């Protein structure tokens, strides 16, 4: 490995010893940008990689709230303002018990590269809390969101930092967060949060954007390799925002989605997943996925087993980080998978990705393939600034064009460095070159 990159990587491992996910995300990027760094000896003197891997600001705060039974509970809130190099910090909020500093930093770091790939003027950030919205009443969710925003509002603004949703934060939570922000600031700053409800500044097609974008990227990737989605069997992990709309678009392109899951188990329906039923369970009833069997008794529900044991042509991990490991990758490959599309952030472990690539499997990397959500968030911000609403078709068409451009950036960068169809490296290189250029131009900050 390039000696400068190796030195930085070792320093990062030492300094962040308790942050395995962050180290993993940095390692993945640094090992793939080597051919670019080799051509730029000047980076070392200006500590370009050190600056790119150190957040500009990391904020943690106390979030107390009162439960319905009168008990006060304290959670920890985070906002990582990682990079404002090419625009205001931008990235979602995650409410999940697993949230910690490592996960926040890995997500914030990935976000910088993802946002650069969209071609839009947005920097990278991420935030959230170790609060678990599952099983909480609406009032508890509202009180928690209000408490969270009471602190977060000091640090955000439509030209400073613009959070959105992520795991556990959907339209309901964004609504409560937005209401509290507006109340404290006493100003209508429509663009301070994205993923808003349609009646108060949200964008049509934002809800669908990450899942749709993933499938647009997959379509381009398959096309470029003389293949298509038509008639393919697809397994999707998760049954949340990304998974549901990836399923919808894949079905529209003639693919057959045969399995989806939540964190408790998976549903395998050989006749093809009934998405309306999944939407009812997850978006409306906020129930567990096994309820699918109430309507479809012929489907199989399996607990405590990997969804990746199911034979498929295309695997779409859309749940969470490191949900697909080397063993899963080996099973998928032996079952004849042809392509993997990362809807979630860093869902494949590093050795799983390497195994796919070594076996000629097409991999659509998260930074590129799931960038449709944040790109559409940026379109939501534009609409808020213009005091204007675009139609669903207008937004969807822009999203499609953006995903085509992102795919082409990954493909062109991979070709330029003789990396064949390694779009993982292509995505990292394309994003890194843009960021490095901006960093050099802006001096030592
Ligand atoms: P949601 O909260 O809407 O859904 C997450 C889904 O994944 C749920 O069905 C959840 O099940 C399931 N899940 C979580 N952990 C596990 C696990 N360990 N094993 C199996 N299933 C699991 O989140 P999103 O769909 O918004 O986000 C999913 C991923 O996509 C995340 O990595 C996120 O960072 C990424 N992403 C999201 C974007 C967006 O626009 N929403 C944009 C770009 C990336 P359960 O309900 O049981 O917990």
Structure description:
- The protein is built from 18 helices and twelve strands.
- It is of the alpha/beta class and 445 residues long.
- It folds into three domains: 1-54, no CATH class; 55-188, Leucine Dehydrogenase, chain A, domain 1 (Rossmann fold, 3-Layer(aba) Sandwich), CATH 3.40.50; 207-369, Rossmann fold.
- It has a seven-stranded mixed sheet, sandwiched between helices. Strands 1-2-4-3-5 form a five-stranded mixed sheet, sandwiched between helices.
- The longest helix is centred in the C-terminal third of the chain and has 25 residues, at 392-416.
- The radius of gyration is 21 Å and the shape is globular.
- The mean pLDDT is 98.
- The structure holds NADPH dihydro-nicotinamide-adenine-dinucleotide phosphate (NDP).
- NADPH dihydro-nicotinamide-adenine-dinucleotide phosphate is lined by residues 165-168, 210, 237-243, 261-264, 318-320, 323, 343-345, 370, 373.
How is this structure best summarized?
By secondary structure, the chain is α/β, with parallel strands linked by helices. It is 48% helix and 15% strand.
Q: What is the β-strand count?
A: 12
Number of helices: 18
Rg, alpha carbons: 21 Å
List unreliable stretches of 5+ residues: none
Shape: globular
The helix-and-strand class reads alpha/beta
β-strand percent reads: 15-25%
Instruction: Indicate the CATH topology of the largest domain.
Output: Rossmann fold
User: How many domains comprise the coordinates?
Assistant: 3
Mean pLDDT: 98
The biggest beta sheet is recorded as: 7 strands, mixed
In CATH, the architecture of the largest domain is 3-Layer(aba) Sandwich
Oligomer: single chain
């Amino acid at each position: 490995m390039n000696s400068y990159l190796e030195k930085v990587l070792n320093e990062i491992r030492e300094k962040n010893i308790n942050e395995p996910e962050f180290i993993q995300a940095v390692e993945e990027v640094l090992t793939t940008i080597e051919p670019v760094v080799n051509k730029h000896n000047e980076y070392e003197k200006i500590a370009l990689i050190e600056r790119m891997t150190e957040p500009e600001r990391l904020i943690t705060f106390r979030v107390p709230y009162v439960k319905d039974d009168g008990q006060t509970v304290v959670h920890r809130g985070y906002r990582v303002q990682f990079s404002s190099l090419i625009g205001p910090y931008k990235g979602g909020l995650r409410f999940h018990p697993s949230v910690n500093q490592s996960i926040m930093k890995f997500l914030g770091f990935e976000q910088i590269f993802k946002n650069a790939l969209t071609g839009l003027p947005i920097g990278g950030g991420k935030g959230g809390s170790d609060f678990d919205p599952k099983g909480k009443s609406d009032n508890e969710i509202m009180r928690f969101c209000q408490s969270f925003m009471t602190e977060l509002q000091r640090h955000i603004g439509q030209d400073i930092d613009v959070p959105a949703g992520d795991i556990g934060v959907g339209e309901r939570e964004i609504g409560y967060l937005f209401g509290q922000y507006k109340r404290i600031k006493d100003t209508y700053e429509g663009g301070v949060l994205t993923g808003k409800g349609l009646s108060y500044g949200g964008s049509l097609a934002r809800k669908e954007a990450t899942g749709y974008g993933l499938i647009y990227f997959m379509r381009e990737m398959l096309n470029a390799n003389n293949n298509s989605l038509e008639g393919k069997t697809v397994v999707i992990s998760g049954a949340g925002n990304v998974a549901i709309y990836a399923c919808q678009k894949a079905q529209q392109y003639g693919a057959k989605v045969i399995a989806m899951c939540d964190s408790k188990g998976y549903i395998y329906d050989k006749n093809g997943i009934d998405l309306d039923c999944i939407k009812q369970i997850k978006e409306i009833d906020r129930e567990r996925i096994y309820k699918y069997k109430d309507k479809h008794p012929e489907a199989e529900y399996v607990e405590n087993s990997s969804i990746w044991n199911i034979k498929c042509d295309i695997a779409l991990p859309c749940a969470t980080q490191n949900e697909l490991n080397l063993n899963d990758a080996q099973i998928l490959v032996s079952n004849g998978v042809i392509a993997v599309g990362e809807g979630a952030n860093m869902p494949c472990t590093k050795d799983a990705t390497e195994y796919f690539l070594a076996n000629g499997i097409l991999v659509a990397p998260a930074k590129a393939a799931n960038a449709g959500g944040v790109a559409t968030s940026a379109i939501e911000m534009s609409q808020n600034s213009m005091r204007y609403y675009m139609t669903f078709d207008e937004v969807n068409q822009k999203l499609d064009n953006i995903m085509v451009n992102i795919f082409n950036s990954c493909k062109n960068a991979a070709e330029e460095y003789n990396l064949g169809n390694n779009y993982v490296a292509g995505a990292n290189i394309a994003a890194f070159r843009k960021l490095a250029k901006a960093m050099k131009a802006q001096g030592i900050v």
